[in-house]
Amino acid sequence: MLKAILFFCVFTCVKTPPVYSRPLKKIIVDSSNNHHLDDAFFYLPLPISQKKKETQILREFVLERVKPRTSSDIEAFADILDWVHSRWKHDGSMSPSGMSSLDVLQSAEQGRSFSCIEYAKVYTDILHSLGYICRIIGVTNADIAYGGMGVSHTLCEAWSDELNKWVMIDPQFGYMLQKKGEFINYHELFQSLTHKQVSAIDIMMMDGMKKLVRIDDKSEQTYIDFIKRYMAYMMFDMKVNAKEVMYVLPFGKQEQFMTSQGGNSKPLIFLSQVSEAYFNVNRTHLLFEFNTPSGDVASIVASDSVSSQEEFKKLMSDQQAIPDFTIHLTNNAPWFSHYEININGEQTWNKVTGHTFQLKLRDGKNMISVRSVNQAGRTGVITSMHMRYQ
């Protein structure tokens, strides 16, 4: 009788369905802005290094005369804008092509005036010297190929790490533009004017007390009437294979052109998508590589004991991925110096040596934040991931 009972117990145990050897724990991404990096920044005509002699001399010249606030990039943009705008009175004459921004500023101190082109060039070069990304943009009417005088205007767009976007700046007028309280780029201005949303646009200018304030209605309408004349094409310089070219973004159904006011133009590359003109910069990407080997679908299914979905799921816990990672970092930040990381909301950011770091997720919620830092100490857009291991 005892033997029968033992046999029954053994038989029963053998027939008992397999149990999990350990609970299945999942790695879940709740939110992330860890997206593909655009490589167009490689082609921006920027100083090679913040340590370049001409860049250092210009920076020293400017900082002896104005102390821009740097706690916010918008404040820095506005302070430099206010200063550059006040350097000279606009006229239509253009400087000799060999004049540097420092030459222009020194000549302005002697009473010389310049055009919108020099305003944009000086403003852009100053921002570059301070570690900010900026580009000169030309905006034109539809008759850029063979039109006469007054077919174009020159202004700037600066990259805001805080806003993660390009922001329109007009140094000749000293203006930055907002729509419903948000700073906008030139294409967003075009869209607003095209869709008759002028009332939503506010034109901002420094008031002499380091505050951006809305200009009066009459001045605003004057500028809107002025800028509406240049809503056919937007252009900006790039370098492709060491050759200076110009990217052209047509607005609406504009045709391609070959000449500029009847003369030669730089080699032109016409863009078909707005995103090709408004690429992202100063960003960091995280590539996760598992350190601990685990099984895969093929190895689980290959098991003789797996003949159903239920059995597959039971074995999944034995093959589950362990969140122990080597994280590889890449960036599209000009003048890159190093990375900084912040894990789970630490009070300080920690410098990363090299382009990798080790990370093992803790049980429960995890937050990983990474940013690039350039040679001027400017921090880029923060890439953050909220993840759970449970």
What would you say this structure looks like, in words?
With 390 residues, the chain is an alpha+beta fold. 26% of the residues lie in helices and 29% in strands. It is built from ten helices and 18 strands. The protein has helices at 2-15, 53-63, 73-85, 101-109, 116-129, 186-194, 217-227, 274-277, 297-301, 309-319; strands at residues 27-32, 134-140, 152-160, 165-170, 175-179, 182-183, 201-206, 212-214, 233-240, 243-250, 268-270, 284-290, 324-331, 336-343, 350-352, 356-360, 364-374, 383-389. Strands 2, 3, 4, 5, 6, 7, 8, 9, 10 and 11 form a ten-stranded mixed beta sheet that branches. It has a five-stranded antiparallel beta sheet with strand order 1-18-17-14-15, with no helix packed on it. The protein has a three-stranded antiparallel beta sheet with strand order 12-13-16, with no helix packed on it. A hairpin with a 4-residue loop joins strand 4 and strand 5 (175-179). Helix 3 (73-85) packs across helix 5 and helix 4 crosses helix 5 (116-129). The radius of gyration is 29 Å and the shape is elongated. Mean pLDDT is 90; it is low at 1-20.
